[in-house]
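Section 5.1 Outputs to date
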Amino acid sequence: MLDPLKLRVLRSVVETGSIRASAEALGYTPSAVSQHLTSLRRETGIELVERSGRGISVTAHGRRLAAEAGPALDALDALDRTVEDLRAGRIGTLRLGYATSVAASWVPELTQQVRRRFPDLRLELVLRDCTCEDLAAEGMDVVVGEGSEEVPSEEWASQELLEEGYVAIVGADHPLADRSEVRLQELADESWVTDDPLDSAWFDRIAAACRAAGFTPRVDVNPGDFPTVLGFVATGDHVTVQPSVIGADLRPDVVAIPLAEPGPRRRLRLQVRRAVALNPAVQFLAAGIRDLAARKAADFPGVLDLTGPPASPARDALRRAG
């Protein structure tokens, strides 16, 4: 395969008309330009230049080679620009996986920020009601969700975002709607609705807290999505218990009431695939997620901001990446 650098030198000599002018244009010395032409002549077996008075002129074969090389060199230039755009996060695809609890109150804002900053980047959003580990297995680049205890990973850098309690969500006309907090026991006789699978770890955490309070929640409706849950709650005939941050931006006909302590708690985590951690778009998205988590923690009673100074090598790597 012919050396693109030598072909660029030949094209420059054709365009400028001399070795000296080409050297000035390329930032080389005249001897370096001559050496590239000599090397290209040996590679091709073609006489590319010939003496003309005190200078040189490009042969017909040399001009033909430079002309034919033009489109290929332009394509390589375009490819170089594409590589730079990908490295800078301006183009390509970024996959964000996220749990249901951050879907409505986090993801629209994050998406708007990223698309304004990187308008040619394709941001692929993947909603899964599962753990960070499940999302990571599906080829995500950035994951926000509930995770198990942090373990060292060669593939992922992780950082805890926040720790939160739970809220009871009731209809605006429900007898509990004006309360500042509610005890789980007060929900014992209510009809429950939840979008969590009843055999999932997420619902089991809530059910275990209820059993500790002396009752088993009576789940009468189990739809597959949170908006439908809120629809049932809004009728006033059902209640649901959900993580605190999901209580933001609820519809006006329902009310979120913090559960009194002691109650179930959980942690949200940010995970970034190390292979893309230095990508500017990934750094920008990760910083936006941390900022949102800190703001949500400040907005809700009992929510702890865990985005402070990193406390492990994995978190330190993620902090540098973001």
